[in-house]
Amino acid sequence: MKRHPTLIPLSHQHHHTLAWCLRVERQPEHTDPAAWQAHRAELPAHFAEEEALFAPWWDKLARDDWRKRFEQEHAHILDLLAQACSPAQQTALAQALRAHIRFEERELFPAMQAFLPQENA
Question: Matching InterPro entries, A to Z (predicted)?
Answer without folding.
Answer: Hemerythrin-like
